[in-house]
């Protein structure tokens, strides 16, 4: 049995959020991933973000594909329905789930093998359809469950644990997501929760296709010298453009990094995304500039992180399809079945 | 003078045209006019995988008796395509008729001596009247309909009424079509003797209140009535018109009157994998969802079908079957996806299949499939085919019971959970193998579970323990037996005389089989027949087989797929089940079935199975 239950009793002094839940209420089962796996830090960030957003735990649906990353949803949001789908096809299942009930918060969790190799097609299409979701790729550049093969996000020239250099070009999911029409695109590092947690919160709050590429080192197979997805490499080459300070109309997020200049992005729902610039002048609402900056970073060997692109007025798939306000899965017979008299008219038109 | 076939309300006219020339609507007009005279017709498109330029045919069987299967043979060929002239002329029955455009003189060698030739200078008439190239092309078609209406005694008032309906509010178009029709009519009246063609249509009263509709359109309407809210699909012949019809029906029937907003969502996905993934996501989340596809699409969907089956998520897949394998014959019909659907995906999987016989059952079964998928929490296939799906077929009017309500199956609500009901997602509480499920978002603290394609215990917890796995697989088997009880039951046709021979068949074979049964009965070959309407098979199917010494299994594929399934599901001696197989891509005919069964009956009557076994 790899399923391990946590004690259900919570300490009475745990602080409840506005929804009346403690942080523990957003946790899942005990992780069975390797000790030190970046994925566990991302799970912790998802728990923290959900808790801080005051979202009701059962109002989140979490979906994943296959792989180490896709196992992660077992380890967070235990009160939410989850769906571990098939390899590389989580996006279509999440699209269908979202169509059925637009009122839940959708959290898709995938890996670099799941999204950039077998699932590249579905990854591209869920972005261009604008499904209202948060899509997180726990990106470690390697196949963990099958013991260390390169994935499609492994950088060209990076060295495997067995000492082999990767000769294929890497797929940059951030660039692809922007190109495919995602309306919120960020990158972060599993080792930087101060940047990651607010990014996840903002992504969950975004009313469109939100994508986060989170570099998440694989301690078992991709954390050695020569790897470009190791803790050391990412720490050294992390070029953070900004950190989200807070989302106005929500509680302030306390942050622990150096103050910089501030910029705000007003979103369609009136909320303000306040970004703290960390270095250069960077405008994340400029799609072309975002593409350029990400490509420049790749050229220079930087891991460019932060909120890279945001469309402040996103439109989602339900908007495109002009669906009714009620969730489709709540429509009843009267809504759905036109009845015998309409059928009589149809019969008459077919004679 | 050659012999001349004489027939009233019982003949076949075949139109040979060039794809994209506008002939389809003219030919349909021809068929509908006869229908309006109260005479049943059964038209079939025989078309290429092409938009413009390749040959296409339209075959109309005029049938007073209402035999709606393909008859085979051609009594009159309307040869409008020079490309296929030779084979078209060859296909005409001796004593039949060749109708052609006689504008240019043709050498005698191009014709046959044993058929009757009717030449009408269509191009000359057209060019003398119209100067615009497109008009010439379109109205030439109407002119030949006009000419044929005089030759065959088709009531031109019915044609004009049809024009009136088609061009309502477009008087100019109406007038120009009537004019073209009369050009053809007048020429024939002046130049052809009234009885030169002895095939005649005489007004009758055999159509009744039946409707004339394509199976794809009917299935789409069934999806609307059955409460489908999500449709995801990928274009593939011959199923594309199903999703398009669903869109058209929803536009009329499923928009909120006040806000104009849609009570449905349709996604044209990037491929069939995504289509079925979307359907499964929606089904998991409590919306009724379906996809429509054909054989190659099923091949792509199989991994997901296994997931939906093992994770127990409702999904409806309408498979409009075409000729396989691989790309096969995209525009020809077959019943060759039974095995690939019934046992789709890796591991021990079995799925529910429904076999509609005509558009009427396409409507019923698609609506039923949505109920069954929810009740059984599993994929349900509606196994139609190109012959039913893409041809207009006369069938009984659609019926919907006022009292009928959507049956969502076993869904536990927040109130149930609060009342303390024990929720185990894969727990068989009722002994029918069907567990309860919850929709995501139901309750803040109870009823959440993790859906997965891996093995799990009764409470949806991941487990690879052998005993847990076996328990789950046995419960799924039990659920499959439940499916056999609640799916559409077989329909039996009994011979008036006792017989030791039976026939089992399914789906679009029905009209030809019914006609064949009449022929067999008339020649003293008595057989009982059973039309199977679903898989898993009802117990009555096995009983039927045991009741007879020999059972012919009639199907439209090479490998006798239904027979294979009967043998393995019921553990039967294959020698008892005699295959009758038609799989050249054309719809099976009564002529074929009768000839094949009579031949095989003849062989059987020489040495009986029991004697042979004893020797």
Please work out how many helical segments of chain B DSSP would assign. 20
Radius of gyration of chain A: 21 Å
Q: In what order do the strands lie side by side in the largest sheet of chain A?
A: 2-1-3-4-8-7-13-9
The poorly predicted ranges of chain B are: none
| Gyration radius from CA atoms of chain B, angstroms | 27 Å
The domain count of chain A comes to 1
Classify the fold: give the CATH topology of chain A: Rossmann fold
Global mean pLDDT of chain A: 90
Shape of chain B: globular
- Range of strand content of chain B: 15-25%
Low-confidence stretches of chain A: 251-257
Quote the beta fraction of chain A.
Answer: 15-25%
Strand tally of chain B: 23
Q: Can you tell me the CATH class of the largest domain in chain B?
A: Alpha Beta
As a percent range, the share of helical residues of chain B equals 25-40%
Description:
The complex is a heterodimer of chains A (351) and B (615). Chain A has 351 residues and is an alpha/beta fold. Chain A has one domain: Rossmann fold (3-Layer(aba) Sandwich), CATH 3.40.50.970. Chain A contains 12 helices and 13 strands. In chain A, helix 1 packs across helix 7 and helix 6 (173-180) runs antiparallel to helix 9 (287-299). The longest helix of chain A has 15 residues, at 38-52. The model of chain A is unreliable at 251-257 (pLDDT under 50). Chain B is an alpha/beta fold and 615 residues long. Chain B folds into 4 domains: 7-200, Pyruvate-ferredoxin oxidoreductase, PFOR, domain III (Pyruvate-ferredoxin Oxidoreductase, domain 3, 3-Layer(aba) Sandwich); 213-395, Rossmann fold (3-Layer(aba) Sandwich), CATH 3.40.50; 414-486, no CATH class; 491-614, Rossmann fold. Chain B contains 20 helices and 23 strands. Chain B has a 7-stranded mixed β-sheet with strand order 11-10-12-13-15-14-21, sandwiched between helices. A 6-stranded mixed β-sheet of chain B has the order 3-4-2-5-6-7. Chain B is globular and about 85 Å long. In chain B, 53% of the residues are buried. The model of chain B has no long low-confidence stretch (mean pLDDT 96). The chains are: A alpha/beta (351), B alpha/beta (615). Chains A and B meet through strand 2, helix 3, helix 5, helix 10 and helix 11 of A and strand 9, helix 7, strand 11, helix 9 and helix 10 of B. Strand 2 of chain A pairs parallel with strand 17 (450-452) of chain B.
